[in-house]
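General statements about sequence and structure are easier to judge against a single worked case. For one protein, we set the task of working out the structure tokens from the amino acid sequence alone. The sequence in question and its structure tokens are set out directly beneath this paragraph.
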Amino acid sequence: MKEYKGKIELRIENVGTKSEGCYAYLEHAEGELQLCREGQYPVNDPYFEPYKGAEVVISGTESHGWLIVETIAPTLSSEPTALENPEP
């Protein structure tokens, strides 16, 4: 397993086909990787939605052009600060 740092993007792809839907990608220093989870269909996977646009560190394994995600953790730059979200 390897760690990858980058930004998660969600894109609608394959418009007009049976596989049309939202796919997750990790944009990183070396390019981009399409994301999926072991045993899950990669289209419209709600697991990636909370990380849309976030800088993250992903632990996973590359296989056949995909990054099979084990864990995702936001980087410190993606976490809100106390000033951005003050407690009531």
Q: What stands out?
A: Confidence is low (pLDDT under 50) at residues 80-88. The beta strands are 2-13, 21-28, 31-37, 55-63, 66-74. The chain is about 0% helix and 50% strand.
